[in-house]
Amino acid sequence: MRIVRAHEFGGVDKLVLDTIDAPAPGPGQVRIAVRAMGVNPVDWKLLSGKAPVLPPLPLVPGGDVAGVVDAVGEGVTGFARGDRVFAHPGLTGGYAESIVLVDDIVAPIGGDITCPQAAAIPLVALTAWQAFAADGRDLSGLKVLVHNAAGGVGSVAVQIAKARGAHVIGSASDANAEFVRGLGADEVVDFRNTSPGSMARDMDVLLDLVGNSLESGLWALVREGGSVLRVAGGATAPAEEVVDGVRSYKVRVRPNGAQLRELSAMMDRGELRADIAATFPLAAATDALRLSMVGHTRGKIVLTAD
Ligand SMILES: NC(=O)c1ccc[n+]([C@@H]2O[C@H](COP(=O)([O-])OP(=O)(O)OC[C@H]3O[C@@H](n4cnc5c(N)ncnc54)[C@H](OP(=O)(O)O)[C@@H]3O)[C@@H](O)[C@H]2O)c1
After folding, report:
1. In 214-277, which ranges are continuous DSSP H helix?
2. Which atom of ligand 1 is nearest to the CA of 150?
């Protein structure tokens, strides 16, 4: 099988396309013949070698896979060969034509969903799901501000919050405003042109996908008793703290098959869709990562194993 990996840190140019034997599934594991992989900013952040915690080398980037089960290990009862599935394997391991995963982090994908569409979902949607779970409140009727609503995480967070009955305000540039409204946002604001000082302190939840909520004054828009969900930034912040009557939670995405099943059901019901900004073949992963690094992705970048 082909696998894209780096044998040293130093950026996306360190990636090479290698060919190795496909792994065999152990007890409780399934092997997926991967058809599509998601690209996320963490991929190039890890490759830079400058992330606070680094995985071992060789580093195989990739936090999303979608494909077909082609082998199951002893004791696996929930999946069989031929099942179409997707997963967030963790922050690494996805850029490969074959991957072995424990069965409880894998979920089925509906018949109408293509592998590229499915591969665009796991990491970003689990991030949004787990961020809202950290807050723990029923979002129905709450005002939720998604700061960076047009990117990978934001574009699914808007849809999840809307499906739960929230009033959603998305932050995005004018160029992305219509796109974010199309995802279901009730309002769109560009905080690069609009001062938060002109807005009321009436947000219940702020999902920070930029990492500048304190410095930019967005934190001050959250009402007392509300919450800030720090997906980006806050590297040195405690896991949970209260600042100015607002509770903040540091969110770090984790694999979770049960949550992925719920997200898969949302896709089947038409409540959650992937927006694919660009598709590259696996062998052009470096080009895909360079595009992600520009920082203007609308939706997701996806690799295919063709
Ligand atoms: N903690 C975790 O577990 C976790 C999980 C997933 C992601 N993350 C992090 O969360 C961040 C977002 O991830 P992502 O995948 O959504 O990134 P992404 O898809 O690369 O985000 C790109 C989008 O960001 C927008 N943007 C940039 N600066 C903005 C600003 N100041 N205000 C509004 N929009 C802005 C861009 O819009 P324009 O084109 O208009 O500039 C573009 O649409 C990254 O730092 C990522 O590493 C963390």
Report:
1. 257-268
2. 43
- The answer, yes or no, to whether any atom of ligand 1 lies below 6 A from the CB of 251, is yes
For residue 50, which amino acid is it?
A: K
Domain 2-121+274-304 and domain 124-250 have a common topology:
no
For ligand 1, atom 38, name the residue with the nearest CA. Answer: 296
Percent of the chain with pLDDT over 70: 100
Spatial separation of the C-alpha atoms in residues 97 and 285, rounded to whole Å: 13
SS3 291: helix
Domain spans in the chain, listed from the N-terminal domain onward: 2-121+274-304, 124-250
pTM of the model: 0.98
Atom of ligand 1 nearest to the CA of 233: 45
For 191-234, the pLDDT digits (tens) are 999 999 989 999 999 999 999 999 999 999 999 999 999 999 98
Distance 293 CA to ligand 1 centre (A): 10
Q: Which residues contact 99 (CB under 8 A, 6 or more apart)?
A: 23, 31, 32, 34, 65, 89, 93
- Name the residue of 153, 259, 291 whose CB sits within 8 Å of the most ligand 1 atoms, as the mutation to test its pocket: 153
Name which CATH class applies to 2-121+274-304: alpha beta
Q: Which residue has the tokens 């719920």?
A: 262
Given a cut of 90, whether residue 235 has pLDDT beyond it is no
Per-residue pLDDT, 306: 79
pLDDT digits (tens, 9 = 90+) for 2-19: 999 999 999 999 999 999
How confident is residue 273, by pLDDT bands cut at 50, 70 and 90? very high
CATH of 124-250, one of 3.40.640.10, 3.40.50.720, 3.40.50.2300, 3.50.30.30: 3.40.50.720
Rounded distance from Cα 198 to ligand 1 centre (Å): 24
Ligand 1, atom 36, lies closest to the CA of 296
CA angle, corner 204, sides to 239 and 170, nearest 5? 95
